[in-house]
Sequence to fold (477 residues):
Amino acid sequence: MKYLRMFKVKRDEWLASALMLLTTICLHALVIARNYDLFTQTNRGHWNVFINNFTISGFDPITYSMVTYWEANYNVYRHPLLSFMVWPLSQLDKWLTDLTGLNLVQFIVAVPLLLCAFYAYIFTYRTFRDVIRLRRFDSAVLAQMLFAFAYVMVATVVPDHFCVSMFLLVFTIYIAGMKIQSGRQFKIWQTVLLFFVTAGVTLSNGIKTYIYSLFTNGRKFFRLKYFLFAVLLPAALIWGFARWEYRTFVLPKELARNEATAKKRAENTRKMYEAFKDTTSIKGSEEIRKAFNAELQRRAEEKQRNDSKRAWNKHTGKPMGKGEFMNWTDGTTSRAETAVENLFGESIQLHPDYLLQDTLRSRPVIVRYRWAANYVVEGLLVLLFAAGIWYGRRSRFLWMALCGFAFDMALHLGLGFGINEVYIMGAHWLFVIPFAIGFLLKGARDSKAEPWLRAALVLLTAWLMGYNMTLFIGYLV
Fold:
């Protein structure tokens, strides 16, 4: 009961959080209405219907398909427990479909997303109030700033895991911040529970849970008992579970699919050879076979040339190496342009050109803004972020948050994982920006600069909210 009381909304939190929730509900309504007639049908192939018709940036509607017909379709190494977390939703959807004759998957998925968005806002606000110790108004402004960022706003209403991840990360960092403030440490069971939940949704979240535990527990993090039972054992268990999940659910389907593909290819090749043999003027079986193989080679090269021009290939950089996991890396996409246009650009302010299009379909990796004002806003936010880091340089909490941010940057800008659409991962790290700005505001308290800084933050938040909301709603309707 003590821990459940954390989720009780306080009196001073209701107004701002209710406004945020109402806004998010309205956006959900627009997202649902966009494909309502198609997605509520129960007699259509669910996977292709969702994948081909849900088009909001690079977000995948896999959850819609999973809830409609459950199977382990998430990447088991990146999301080891997520398939099993949505299983209860799948059972609810099945019951409601039998009851109503409609597939209400959009409504079912929207409910946990709304809860996660709501409590992500609550714990963001509490971080400003209880950890950084800002005034109520300033806390509300900075919390709203986070939810005015483009890919936080979008993540709260799309059927992907990013909104869930953001809530879990903000919740975990809030708990860590409160423990740092009171001089307490994470207990083994607390670390294990947070790790399994965060890493179960996305494995990289679990790494951040360990980063937060390291900053909270200090040298005690490496004590044998804690390190063995809170760190090594859970990490080994979840990796072992992911391997079991792959062998049990994924590998059999892959083998069957590969076998069917090979069989179909062999049958097509046989038919092509028979047709070639009947129409060619070449004599002799050996000469016919050589000519046919040359024709196959020509067609393969032509297909490779055509595929290289398609968006899913053209907009993907070359991996740094070969292997099961190195294939996820990218060593050729420009880091500088990515940082300007996508990392601190699209993540925070939508580009009106190629609005919310997918890089694997039609959107170029790098899109530039039409107006200089967008770059001014971006530059101002980066300066405020940097100034906040300077003012909070003595805060263990801020360095903890920045280490999590650095991990994301190493993953995306360093290794290039998901770099061609890095903005869709923004919900994993964008909260660090207003956290840092909070320390700038705290440092300016009772100074002549404070009202000017507060006014600038209010204007920035209003701009981001109005600009992104206008473009997003325009896209949805």
